């Protein structure tokens, strides 16, 4: 009888352990999913930009004064139409263009539906991966030799590359810089078509920018973007 009681007690303890383990698994799974949902922000499907490219070229200007916030749809459009993966039409530049990393620094309350923070733009998913929470526009402006439009923008796009090789013609220009110029021009044209303003900045302290974005890659451009006043 004693042995039987011990056996039953052991079975009950084993069953309790299994139930506890399964409960912990089901409790942890939603929490992990919730954390991932906060970590990656899926952007809405971007409509086409209605303005003809010829008109956008004629109206292209560097804009340094902004109002905010901007709506999520135009934010989504700008990123998608500026940085969607380059296809075969870019020939030898295709791979190099797609290897430029696109980071976004969003200010507090500056983009509707997007919390302030540092993000990596995921081209394939058309989504933002949050890397740091909070607004870093003031620190970024300081790293950009105190250019105030960096801090006053709704968000800043920062292009990075590892600069390994990539020489188009020896002693002339590195390929990543050429690609950054192409992408920056796409930002200009998309901004014009969306009624936004932007300016491309090439003067900044590399080390300070790397520290803000927590990367060892080299910053190529900072592009403040905001709604036109």
Description:
Residues 1-37 have low confidence and may be disordered. Helix content is 44%, strand content 22%. The protein has helices at residues 2-39, 53-59, 72-83, 94-98, 137-143, 148-152, 175-193, 206-213; strands spanning 40-42, 66-67, 101-106, 117-122, 127-133, 155-161, 167-169, 173-174, 196-198, 218-228. It folds into 2 domains: 2-40; 43-228, NADH Oxidase (3-Layer(aba) Sandwich), CATH 3.40.109.10. It has 229 residues and is α+β, with helices and mostly antiparallel strands. It starts with a helix and ends with a strand. Strand 4 (117-122) and strand 5 form a beta hairpin. Strands 1, 2, 3, 4, 5, 6, 9 and 10 form an 8-stranded antiparallel sheet that branches. The protein has a two-stranded antiparallel ribbon with strand order 7-8.
Short characterization:
With 229 residues, this protein is an alpha+beta fold. The protein has eight helices and ten strands.
């Amino acid at each position: 009888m004693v042995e039987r009681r011990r056996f039953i007690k052991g079975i009950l303890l084993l069953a309790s352990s299994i139930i506890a383990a399964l409960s912990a698994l089901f409790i942890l799974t939603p929490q992990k999913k919730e954390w991932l949902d906060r970590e990656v922000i899926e952007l809405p499907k971007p409509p086409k930009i209605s303005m003809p490219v010829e008109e956008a070229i004629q109206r292209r200007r560097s804009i340094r004064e902004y109002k905010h916030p901007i709506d999520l749809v135009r934010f989504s459009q700008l990123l998608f139409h500026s940085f969607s993966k380059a296809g075969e039409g870019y020939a030898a530049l295709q791979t190099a263009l797609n290897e430029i990393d696109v980071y976004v620094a969003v200010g507090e309350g500056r983009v509707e539906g997007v919390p302030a923070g540092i993000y990596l733009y995921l081209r394939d998913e058309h989504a933002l991966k949050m890397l740091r929470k909070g607004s870093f526009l003031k620190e970024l402006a300081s790293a950009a030799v105190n250019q105030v439009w960096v801090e006053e923008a709704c968000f800043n796009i920062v292009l990075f590359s590892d600069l390994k090789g990539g020489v188009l013609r020896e002693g002339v220009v590195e390929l990543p810089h050429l690609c950054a110029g192409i992408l920056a021009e796409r930002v200009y044209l998309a901004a014009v078509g969306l009624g936004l303003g932007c300016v491309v900045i090439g003067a900044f302290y590399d080390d300070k920018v790397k520290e803000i974005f927590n990367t060892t890659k080299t910053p190529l451009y900072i592009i403040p973007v905001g709604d036109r006043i």
